[in-house]
Amino acid sequence: MPNPVRVKYEDLVSDPDGIQERLRGAFGFRYAGRFADFHKADIPPLLGYQLNGVRPPETSRIASWRRHPERIRAQFMACTKLFDLLIEHGYEEDRKWFDDL
What is the CA radius of gyration of the chain? Predict the structure, then answer.
């Protein structure tokens, strides 16, 4: 079994075709279309709801979570393991960012 491949959201949004190629190389996946064209495909209504609509990849929304500090605080207080995951995956160096919310 191949090693897991970590795909960060911001990388997928910034370089969808590069991520697609990386997955193709790692797993030999074959694709009928391009990741960058996901928004052009027909998707089930429930998925459209979960995605809050379908739109082209755009980097301007990567940090949109910062506009919802109360929600972020609540999520991290409910599951403190999230702090460790952010550090483990290289998103943060420590918990100081939380104090700055």
Answer: 16
Residue type, 12: L
Helix (H, G, I), strand (E, B) or coil at 7: coil
Which token pair is 54? 């379908």
Q: What pLDDT score does 2 carry?
A: 59
Dihedral angle over CA of 83, 85, 89, 92, nearest 10: 0
Q: What is the DSSP string of 22-37?
A: HHHHHH----SS-GGG
Question: Is the pLDDT reported for residue 52 higher than 70?
Answer: yes
Question: Nearest 5°: phi and psi at 63?
Answer: -100, 20
Q: Is residue 9 within a helix (H) or strand (E), and if so which, with residue range?
A: helix 9-14
Asked if residue 11 has pLDDT above 90, the reply is yes
Spatial contact of 35 and 19, defined as CB atoms under 8 Å apart: yes
